[in-house]
UniProtKB/TrEMBL annotation:
<feature type="transmembrane region" description="Helical">
    <location>
        <begin position="49"/>
        <end position="68"/>
    </location>
</feature>
<keyword id="KW-0812">Transmembrane</keyword>
<protein>
    <submittedName>
        <fullName>Putative membrane protein</fullName>
    </submittedName>
</protein>
<keyword id="KW-1133">Transmembrane helix</keyword>
<keyword id="KW-0472">Membrane</keyword>
<feature type="transmembrane region" description="Helical">
    <location>
        <begin position="16"/>
        <end position="37"/>
    </location>
</feature>
Length: 77
C-alpha cells in the first residue's frame, strides 16, 4: 500500500532540463560517429552502403537538431 503523504513532486530547474535536452540532441547528432568510429568517409564504403551511411548520418543530424529546437522552444515558454 502506498501512502500519499510519501509521494512528492520534484521540481527541476528549467535550465537544467534545457541543458540535458541539448546534450541528448548533441549525442544523437554524433551517434553515427561514435558507432562507426569515424567521420563520413567516401573511400571506406561504396555503392548502396555509401548511400545508407549518408542517409543515416543526415537523419541523425536532422533528429538531433529537432530535439535541440524543441528544447529551446519549450524553454522559451
Amino acid at each position: 500500500m502506498i501512502h500519499t503523504d510519501m509521494l512528492e513532486v520534484v521540481q527541476i530547474n528549467p535550465k537544467i532540463i534545457l541543458i540535458i535536452q541539448i546534450l541528448i540532441g548533441l549525442i544523437i547528432i554524433i551517434a553515427p560517429i561514435i558507432i562507426t568510429g569515424s567521420m563520413y568517409d567516401v573511400t571506406k564504403s561504396m555503392g548502396d552502403l555509401l548511400v545508407a551511411e549518408f542517409v543515416i548520418r543526415t537523419l541523425s543530424l536532422v533528429t538531433g537538431l529537432l530535439v535541440i529546437s524543441n528544447s529551446l522552444k519549450g524553454y522559451s515558454k
